[in-house]
Amino acid sequence: MNAASHKSIQLFRVPFALTALFITVYTAITLLLLSRLSLWLDEIIDLLGTQKQSLVEVTKYAASNRGGTPIWYLTQALATRALGFSAFSARLPSCIASIAACWGFALLAKRIGARWPTLYVAAFALLPLQLRYALEGRPYAEALCLSVWATVVFLRLLERTTVLNGLLYALLIALGLYTQPYLIFVAAAHVLWALANPRVSAKARLFAVGALSVASVSFVPWLVYARQIWPDYPAPKIHTAIQIRDLFLLLRECLGGGYLLTLPVVAAILASVRAGVVRSSTKLLLVLMILLPIGCAVLVDQLFGYFVASRQVIFVLPSMVLLAGDGIEYIAFKMGGLVATGLTLLILTTSVVYDVGWFTRPREDWKAATTVLRQSVDSGACALLSPDLNAQIFLFFDPALFHRFSDASNISGCSQIAVADMPNSGEYSATIARQLTDAGFRQRRVIFAGEPTVTLVSRQ
User: Fold this and answer.
1) Which of 24, 67, 75, 423 lies 20 to 30 Å (CA to CA) from residue 241?
2) What percentage of the chain has pLDDT greater than the value 70?
3) 260 DSSP 8-state letter
């Protein structure tokens, strides 16, 4: 290796203390950004439950959603009760979980021998999928945090096989299951690797299996309780074949930055397979923590007729970054620091570009649409909703609208109507437009052009 390459590598070897500085800056920025975006539909649906009067009702609401679990709903409910309702308080648990995940990830990077831990943590924190859910009032940042710390404790359990570490590991798995059940696949990867690794002691294997078993059994009461509350939806259509397009979807979206981000990360991971600072046995664990959650998530979705979504495999992010970082270190030694620097900058820059795009693109604004509806009905108009738009969403922001909604079959007493619709619901829009035209209404103007759209029509 030439002197120039050696110098470039030395520039990357920053003290681990810089990681703390980065996480501190990350904390400040994320807290400032929490209220930047309006609440979107899925966040509001969760808030419909977490803003109920008692925590018992909150828990029941969580159980009413198929696959729903209570920890996220309860933490959000407690945050909004303690700080008062706002987008900031609704999203604060996710932000805190993301910060804690960064600290846990820093420990993982240090444990595998990363030479540039701050870059590892920066890459993890800036991943669009990670940052999105750090700033969104949904359970995925909490689940990611618990999976990171479960991995930290699992590795500690292998080194110091004590009852305390075993109980802590079981507790983290159980909390993860009660936050997002797919976390079970991460724990399964841990245990399978421990059972297959001859270097792991028999005692450690027993403790790992026991912890997973205890956590799984602890989740059974929730399944029994929730199953009694689930709505009687028709049985989902069973799919027996995994669609190739689902796998490409996950490849494109698993990091949140499209192929432009996924491909260089995968290239770095492939370089890691060749060599690097991470031991081969540890690499096998990281690979298993990628493949098992993805494969099992796709399989479960197919069995229950659910669509595949990248958020379901958010648990693979730490392993992907650790392997990619190891691959970049290998490239630095084999091909020179400039090549490694270029690949690192490509990954970080692509992440930042997607992050900025997430904050600058047009977004749903249900609160603003509700305000427009309220002003319209106060001016004498009727309010008419698309069948796809649940009145509860608008009532969440303005309960006084409860008695002001009309339906398309009962507009005889209306001279003006404010129609709330989604821009992509073309079939309904065409149908309601024909009904209103037949009733003598004509469009006057679009009074809110976001999502949803609010259009004012009146009789000729």
Assistant:
1) 67
2) 90
3) H
Question: Which residues, in sequence order, are CB contacts of 144 under 8 Å at separation 6+?
Answer: 97, 98, 101, 130, 133, 314, 315, 317, 318
Whether residues 382 and 250 fall in one domain: no
Among 94-98, 353-357, 380-384, which stretch is predicted with the lowest mean pLDDT? 380-384
Q: Is residue 338's pLDDT more than 80?
A: yes
How far apart (Å, rounded) are the C-alpha atoms in residues 168 and 407? Answer: 54
Cα separation, 403 vs 382, whole angstroms: 10
Other residues' Cβ atoms within 10 Å of the Cβ of residue 11:
10
Of 360, 390, 421, the one marking the end of a domain is 360
Residue 459: strand, helix, or coil: strand
Strand partners, 71: none
Query: Among 7-21, 50-64, 126-140, where is mean pLDDT lowest?
Result: 7-21
CA 65 to chain CA centroid, Å, is: 17
Closest CA to 321 of 402, 254, 396: 254
SS3 235: coil
> Would you say 139 and 72 are in contact if contact means Cβ atoms under 8 Å apart?
yes
Instruction: Give the Cβ contact number of residue 287 at 10 Å.
Output: 18
Last residue within a domain, chosen from 335, 360, 385: 360
C-alpha distance from residue 306 to each of 287, 297, 300 (Å): 25, 10, 8
Query: Does 91 lie in the same domain as 19?
Result: yes
Nearest CA-CA partner of 342 in 12, 2, 1: 12
Q: Domain span at residue 439?
A: 366-459
Q: pTM score, two decimals?
A: 0.89
In whole angstroms, what is the distance from residue 274 CA to residue 237 CA? 43
DSSP assignment of 32-68, as one string?
HHTTTS---HHHHHHHHHHTSSSHHHHHHHHHHSTT-
**Are residues 396 and 329 located together in one domain of the fold?**
no
**First-to-final CA distance of the chain:** 81
Cis, bond preceding 452 (omega within 30 deg of 0): yes
The H or E element containing residue 444 is strand 441-448
Measured between alpha carbons, how far is 385 from 185 in angstroms, rounded to an integer? 41
353 and 313 in a common domain: yes
Contact 449, 416 (CB under 8 A): no
Residue pair 447/418 in contact by the 8 Å Cβ criterion: yes
